[in-house]
Write a structure and sequence with these properties.
45% of the residues lie in helices and 18% in strands. The protein is built from 14 helices and 11 strands. Strands 4-3-5-6 form a 4-stranded parallel sheet, sandwiched between helices. A 3-stranded mixed sheet has the order 1-2-9, with helices on one face. A hairpin with a 4-residue loop joins strand 1 (2-5) and strand 2 (10-15). Helix 6 (174-191) packs across helix 7 and helix 11 runs antiparallel to helix 12. It is globular and about 60 Å long. Bound molecules: nicotinamide-adenine-dinucleotide and magnesium ion.
């Protein structure tokens, strides 16, 4: 169990294999019997929906499953409106609760609905992807996308509890598992040398799956520390963005679904470190260590034919950005990072990767 302590309130994260079977018991420890909406997606509903619903009903809750199509497209204002209607039609009031059962998409969408429907009702997270278990389910950021912008509309709203059952990762495919691995590598690189060593000692993804709790807990601790220090993302929380500025640029320019978030971040971490090493901001040999780690888990360390112009545009957004400062995250060593403000044009140097 991990506790998250924030100024306003605190909550617990329970981490244990097969906890999902005891979900009713867990929720009864937090809420009085009431109406509960389990918001999930089609894939997760088919795998775990009835198990969760049955367990809640056995503990006296009136449980409804509200299912949205699997995929990022569901993180929309349209789905939000449909969910508001479902909640209203089923008589949900502020004393009732929402449980997010799914990956980061469901966590962000259900969290947004829970923090805005009737100005907020009770909310719990049951993350079912590795990315959601190590990253998105804690921290209290909720969001939906608009037509042209990701995560444009959202709230800061912490859950009242998080249940992590690593066993559900058994049904997750390799590419999706790697989305979480990329964030674990990032967390180790910026803040936890021991976690880095633990990752180094793993043979491959198979061993990682077997021992995943040993990685989830320290990864959550890295995120928790930053969130406790800077809940509303005004300062040190930016550390979590290591590799993300270039990563987002790559993701956005490659076209939807071509380069995943984790793949973009993996390449971004390598690119930013390579140039930082060249100008003496990151110690020699750090990038090689990153590359070895990323390769072991079959994430990319570089991509062919990157359109650096387009990536630069995506990072800087518009021409007015000229002359502005951009905060980037650099490694002081493996396990320690710093935030550095650079003129935005400097990104061109970080994106030039021809000279090896
Ligand atoms: P996702 O929620 O789309 O899940 C990926 C896929 O895996 C989906 O098709 C889902 O149905 C399926 N799935 C989920 N659990 C499964 C299981 N146990 N077995 C088999 N299949 C399963 O994507 P994600 O990668 O979990 O999350 C990405 C989203 O998270 C993005 O929208 C991103 O913006 C958001 N995010 C939010 C935060 C935050 O702090 N709020 C942080 C990082 C990412
Ligand atoms: Mg990320």
């Amino acid at each position: 169990m991990l506790k998250v302590n924030l100024t306003d309130h605190q909550y617990e994260i329970q981490i244990e294999r097969h906890l999902l079977k005891k979900v009713g018991e867990w929720v009864s420890g937090l809420w009085q019997p009431q109406r509960v909406a389990i918001i999930t997606d089609t894939t997760v509903e088919a795998l775990y929906g009835s198990e969760v619903k049955t367990s809640l009903e056995a503990h006296g809750f009136e449980a409804n499953l509200f299912v949205v199509p699997a995929g990022e497209e569901s993180k929309s204002l349209e789905q939000t409106a449909l969910l508001y209607d479902l909640l209203a039609e089923n008589g949900f009031t502020r004393s009732d609760g929402i449980i997010a059962l799914g990956g980061g998409v469901i966590g962000d969408l259900a969290g947004f609905v829970a923090s805005t429907y009737m100005r907020g009702l009770h909310f719990l997270q049951i993350p079912t992807t590795l990315l959601a278990q190590v990253d998105s389910s804690i921290g209290g950021k909720t969001a939906v996308n608009t037509k042209n912008a990701k995560n444009l509309v959202g709230t800061f709203s912490q859950p009242e509890g998080v249940l992590i059952d690593p066993e559900v990762l058994e049904t997750l495919d390799e590419r999706r598992l790697r989305e979480g691995i990329a964030e674990i590598i990032k967390s180790a690189a910026i803040a936890d040398k021991e976690l880095w060593e633990a990752l180094k000692n793993l043979k491959d993804e198979f061993e990682l799956r077997e021992r995943v709790e040993e990685l989830i807990i320290p990864s959550l601790k890295v995120k928790r520390k930053v969130v406790e220090e800077d809940e509303f993302d005004n300062g040190s929380r930016l550390m979590l963005n290591f590799g993300h500025t270039i990563g987002h640029g790559i993701e956005n320019t490659a076209g939807y679904g071509v380069v995943s978030h984790g793949e973009g971040v993996a390449v971004g971490m390598v690119m930013i470190s390579k140039h930082a090493e060249k100008i003496g901001q990151t110690p020699q040999g750090t990038t090689d260590q990153l590359i070895q780690m990323i390769e072991k888990f079959h994430l990319p360390t570089s991509l062919e034919n990157l359109d650096t112009q387009a990536i630069y545009q995506a990072i800087t957004h518009d021409k007015k950005a000229r002359g502005k400062q951009l905060k980037i995250i650099l490694l002081e060593e493996i396990g320690q990072a710093k935030i550095v403000a650079v003129p935005i044009e400097t990104m061109t140097d970080y994106l030039q990767q021809e000279e090896q």
